[in-house]
Design brief:
Layout (H helix, E strand, L loop, with lengths): L1 H34 E2 L2 E2 L2 E6 L2 E6 L6 H9 L9 H20 L5 H15 L18 H18 L12 H5 L5 H37 L4 E6 L2 E7 H25 L2 E2 L14 H15 L4 E2 L3 H6 L2 H27 L10 E2 L17 H25 L9 H27 L3 E2 L1 H9 L9 H4 L1 H14 L3 H8 L4 H7 L2 H4 L7
Parallel strand pairs: 7-8
Antiparallel strand pairs: 1-2, 3-4, 5-6, 9-10
Length: 505
């Protein structure tokens, strides 16, 4: 009996021992998975701020303040716009150069900070900016993310370990003579200028293609419409020229607001008073930024005003919204003129881009015009967010700049891509339906307006009523009654006479 008990306990102890061993193995595997990858062992470094210490993976270039931002702000699920990262790096490079110009920043530190900034400007290290674009703190997390990346890369270039902020500091060196409150909005402006150029290039393509269509379609007479009702004739070329004119007006507005955002508050530091920034630095940083970007940036005459007011962003966003409104109107006109094809206006043939229905065979929808509309709606929504952000500044700072930047950058991205898509996938391949345009014109009562100077209002109204009642074309009624000869009528109702100022002689 005792032998059986011993054997049983012996077996239990054996399995218990190996169970513990098995658990230890599993634990070790978990550690290996956590700390060992294809690149080898991942080590951690300790960094601290005045809130305490955090461990940071040694392979990354950001630091403790970026880590706290990642923990605190998981709002959009998006990362910073790459153009903005590059823009902010240009601002930091300008600041480093200006601080070296004044002699405050030692060259052995400033040179490697500039080198690190140049790498980011060239498109490197973009993956080292994990912070959410929308965040509390007026953009401090973004500013410190940039400062940490610059310093850790600079340390690496000098052969030093990341995190050795006693040698090169995110606050003391990368942020020298700066605050989030001047560096961040300046970075926004540099980015807006770049994206604004891309938007202007897209609008230029659109206007140019519309002008080509205006020339090509100048002889195609069609019915003009007001209130969605027949009005008087117009050429398809004139309509295209009007769209082009409106687009060029949008370009003019954009250029005006672009010039305005080249006034910056660099050197204002925290509240615009310039605390901790030498007067020589304030002059030098605008000059250096101009050299780096190839554009002219000017220091505001009132830096305090430029620090606490963000109405320049409202102007810029408003210009985008106005452009969106113009584009929506144009896009919807194209949709209406292409409606049908059998039971609509059918005056335009849009390129067929995809099947239009999961249930209706043969249906093709104006998807490119529709997507331009939707992108523009998003721009209008973004403008409201910018407007509310501009309104919500208090005293010496507007802390809502992150949401303004997020919406303006997205709006520029969306509308630029949508315009280019409209040009490439719709406008270039557009074809007029000349036969249908003429058919609507011939059957319209609206052409009677051109006869007013020749037969008077009363007679014209009488003819119009008869045309509506009988369904006969105006031209046929006039000839049947002998009111005008065929030659006279053809002259008065010619495209040239009906689509220009004056009275047919």
């Amino acid at each position: 009996m005792w032998m059986k008990v011993w054997e049983k306990n012996k077996c239990y102890l054996f399995f218990s021992k190996y169970y513990l061993f098995f658990c230890f193995v599993v634990y070790c595997i978990q550690l290996l998975i956590k700390y060992v990858g294809g690149k080898g062992e991942i080590t951690m470094r300790k960094e601290h701020d005045f809130l305490g210490e955090l461990e940071v993976p040694d392979e990354v270039y950001y630091g403790v303040q970026t880590m706290r931002a990642v923990e605190n702000f998981n709002i959009t699920g998006q990362k910073l716009d790459p153009d903005f990262i590059v823009a902010l790096a240009k601002v930091k490079k300008a600041a480093a150069l200006a601080n070296m110009d004044t002699g405050r920043l030692r060259r052995e530190i400033g040179d490697v900070l500039v080198q690190a900034a140049d790498e980011i400007i060239a498109g490197g290290l973009i993956d080292q900016f994990p912070v959410d674009p929308i965040q509390g703190g007026a953009g401090t997390s973004i500013n410190m993310n940039m400062n940490e990346v610059l310093c850790n890369r600079a340390l690496e270039l000098r052969g030093e370990a990341k995190g050795r902020y006693d040698i090169i500091s995110p606050n003391n060196h990368a942020n020298m003579a700066q605050s989030t409150n001047d560096a961040f909005p300046t970075g926004i402006k540099v980015c807006l200028s770049k994206k604004g150029d891309d938007f202007l290039a897209a609008l230029e393509r659109l206007a140019t293609e519309l002008e080509k269509k205006a020339t090509a379609y100048r002889g195609i007479l069609k019915m003009g419409r007001t209130h969605l009702q027949d009005a008087v004739p117009i050429t398809l070329g004139q309509e295209m020229g009007a769209y082009a004119s409106a687009v060029r007006r949008c370009m003019k507005r954009t250029r005006i607001v672009q010039r305005a955002i080249h006034t910056i508050n660099m050197g204002g530091t925290a509240v615009g008073t310039g605390l901790n920034a030498e007067p020589a630095y304030i002059k030098a940083v605008a000059k250096r930024l101009s050299e780096i970007t190839g554009e002219t940036y000017r220091t505001s005459q009132n830096i305090i005003d430029a620090t606490n007011n963000t109405d320049a962003f409202a102007d810029f966003s408003s210009a985008l919204k106005n452009a969106a409104l113009v584009l929506i109107k144009m896009s919807n006109d194209f949709r209406l003129m292409a409606s049908g094809p059998r039971c609509g206006l059918n005056e335009l043939h849009l390129p067929m881009r995809q099947p239009g229905s999961s249930i209706m065979p043969g249906k093709v929808n104006p998807v490119i015009a529709e997507v331009l509309d939707q992108a523009c709606y998003q721009v209008i929504a973004g403008d409201l967010a910018v407007t509310l952000g501009v309104e919500n500044g208090q005293f010496e700072l507007n802390v809502m700049e992150p949401v303004m930047a997020f919406n303006m950058f997205n709006s520029l991205n969306y509308i630029t891509r949508a315009v280019n898509t409209f040009v490439d996938k719709l406008l270039i391949g557009l074809e007029p339906n000349v036969e249908q345009c003429q058919k609507w014109l011939d059957n319209s009562v609206g052409i009677v307006t051109a006869l007013l100077p020749h037969i008077g209002y009363e007679k014209s109204a009488e003819l119009a009523k008869e045309a509506y009642t009988t369904g006969k074309p105006i031209r046929e009624i006039i000839l049947d009654r002998g009111i005008l000869t065929k030659k006279e009528l053809s002259h008065i109702l010619s495209p040239r006479q009906m689509t220009r100022p004056g009275i047919a002689e």
